Batch of 2 targets.
Target 1
Amino acid sequence: MNKSKTIDYLEENSNSENKLKRAWRDEDDTNSNKEQRKLLKQKYVGIVGKPKWAKITKDQSKKVSLDDEDEDLDLLKYSGNLARTKKGVNLAKGLIGIKKLHNLNLSTSSCGKIVKSVEFHPTSSLALIAGISGRASIVQVDGFKNEKLQSIKFQKFAIDCAHFTVDGKQFVAGSRTQRNFYCYDLMEGRSMFVPVHHNIGQTRMDNFCMSPDGKLIASCGKFGEIHLFTAKSKEWITTLKMNGAANALTFTNDGKRMYSFGENGEIYEWDMNSRTCIKKFMDDGCLQGTSLALSGDNQYLAAGSSSGVVNLYKLPCDVNPKPDKTILNLVTTVSKLSFNKNSDILAMVSNQKNDAIKLLHVPSKTVFSNFPTTSDNVGKINCIDFSPNSGYLGLANNKSEALLYRLTHFENY
């Protein structure tokens, strides 16, 4: 059986490490024709990144419908391995450097009229796109072609939520119409149907998240239930219970704590070793909690409500904490919150209104004023994600689009 492009890409990307210099010269290199050498070179830089000495000529840059001055995009065009952003260069408040690129699903429109999930791969320059058509696509992120590597169809299964596993070897897809879910193994190229026993009371799988330590999948159930599954075998472990329906979940970066937010406006803090609630408090001024996010440095907890208010709490929280900052820029239900990996940007979204997205500069607690503009026309956003080094921002909307933006402050993918 032939391997998929995704499998080939992941294997080549992992095998490309530590190839720093040529140990010998192969005679076949001399005999190969010019076109073959060109293809090999393109494949190499696509995997290991473009070397510092390499340059793109003016003729090549004209082929891309972007400004010539955007030299930083050339680096991302050839990004393969993930490098770290330079330290000591702080993100300034006020205006954010942001550039619209070609859509992530430029090479595929099979995810349906409503795209529900977009997520960047944790270790490679790949992205997952999924929607109500029941199809999930893996694309290679370069901002230009965004070539589709693979597309997987799940029969009679409208995808509402999809996430990569922490190791990036699989992704899990869930639906609000099905209690069961699917897991797709990228290395083996096969999908697995995961049945859920009716005794646990699981009725849907449209709102779940992965613990950063790679151990758990946590899913919001009905009547305040939170179902826990093992990330490895996908087996049910136990069910936690809070007052009112659980609408949002998030983990600390070590997976030892989980926060849940529900319809009663209460935030619960759970110890994941003992599986017990160790603290709970009312979100200030909240009637119904709808979204939750924790910064990667565990410094801030962001809570969004049905009224459009986002409260930012400095951790650890007291019994009756007051927000460090209250953000009032959204006027409809806050459906998604997401910090970038550097914890200096918080993206806030409502899927009930067109162009309802704001980016918060976390250090100053101020909103960037230049995004979105009236010309961005991002539609109603269902999902948001930052790439591992914050170089890219992905948005999934209700217009069959997975939008891609370049955050120019961050040099790497």
Target 2
Amino acid sequence: MLFFSYFKDLVGREVTVELKNDLAIRGTLHSVDQYLNIKLENTRVVDQDKYPHMLSVRNCFIRGSVVRYVQLPADGVDIDLLHDATRREARGG
């Protein structure tokens, strides 16, 4: 639940999601659920030459099980908050 609550705070921010098939999609985070399924709006493919068929896709739903990485905006990462939350979760409370 740690990352779910963290991602909820990033709704409305631009993120890049890299999938397990090497496709990287950048867009505005519209929603995320407890399984880390992600809905992006105003999407664009990072490597447009490799994936030209994705140029017309503007909104997409990404199943959490196919996500390899999520690149967050640099100003959207609060390291102290993540450290505290990780310690609390490790202690079980």
